[in-house]
Specification:
By secondary structure, this protein is α/β, with parallel strands linked by helices. It contains 10 helices and 7 strands. Helices cover about 40% and strands about 15% of the residues. The protein has a 7-stranded mixed β-sheet with strand order 3-2-1-4-5-7-6, with helices on both faces. The chain starts with 11 loop residues before the first helix and ends with a strand. InterPro entries: Ppm1/Ppm2/Tcmp, SAM-dependent_MTases_sf, TcmP-like.
Length: about 260
Amino acid sequence: MSDYEGVEDTLFIPLTARVNVSKKFPEYFLDPKALEMEELIKNKQIEKKSSEYTMVANVARSYNIDQMAEEYIGRHELCNIVNLGVGLETSYYRIDRKDSLFYEVDLPDVIELREKYIEIGENEKYIKGDLFTLDWCNELDTRLPTLIIVSGVFQYFHEKDILDFIKNVKEIFENAELIFDATNKFGIRYCNFYVKRTGNKSAMMYFYIEDAEEFARKANCKLIECRGFYKDALKILDKKLGLYSKISMKIADKRKNAMILHLKL
């Protein structure tokens, strides 16, 4: 396996978190496929430099997006679920897919890594490409209801890039929704600090949102939901979480340091 630099090295941060939390808190989040891939994690600095809070934070994003994807599939049955910048995400194996069609999109070397270690499932397709060029749109039926998921990716770009992306996608799809995670200005500073601590000093993050409604207006979209990360984690793990983790989660949700936006395009 090649050594990764920059943004691609961050592939292993969420994988490490999913493995760690699946072992420690399976009642909240269990990812058997991630556990099968534990041997891929060569950078032991990630776990050493991560707190309980940062591990759960990574997983809470996946937990909530899984829920939102299942709700979407439940409303539409036959639909597209498009994971842009999919990395080593294993959501295909965690959620109730029904008749949905899954498209996993990332840069060629990342998809090659997936092909080596994560078998392609039924009704699933891997696509090599840059999410911003929109070539991946040619690989699916854009007339079907489509949920586009961008998890842990937009932060590495600038607001103009994101707004241009949304504008272009709206012109292609007849009926699409977008789910993505974001932080506020404080949150982006914390994320940059954390990524540097894990040994990656080249994957800087830039994009943040202070007001979800205002961003939706800029994007000319309807804001369906702006969801915090930790409501269910705090409820399910109340007796098991450390005090620092619980306080940090409550503050993060209250101040919207981390959020998931759901837009109607």
